[in-house]
Amino acid sequence: MPNITVELLSGRTMDQRREFVAAVTEAAVNILKARQQAVRIVFTEIEKSDVANGGVLESDK
């Protein structure tokens, strides 16, 4: 059973999440030969104040 963990900045819509899980699930089924029902995807939302890139907080951009 593929367990896929996705970390992303908060603010994505439910439609974006639905589209993403459909595409990732399809890829796991095709590439890994997993059963669709066995593909598990977990989202972890991260606030912009919790992430820095290049020495700058995302919330400061």
Automatic annotation (TrEMBL):
One of its GO terms (molecular function) is isomerase activity. Belongs to the 4-oxalocrotonate tautomerase family. SUPFAM superfamilies: Tautomerase/MIF. The lineage of its organism: Bacteria, Bacillati, Actinomycetota, Actinomycetes, Micromonosporales. Residues 2-57 form the 4-oxalocrotonate tautomerase-like domain. PANTHER family: BSL4019 PROTEIN, TAUTOMERASE-RELATED. InterPro entries: 4-OT-like_dom, Tautomerase/MIF_sf. Keywords: Isomerase. This is 4-oxalocrotonate tautomerase-like domain-containing protein. It comes from the Bacteria.
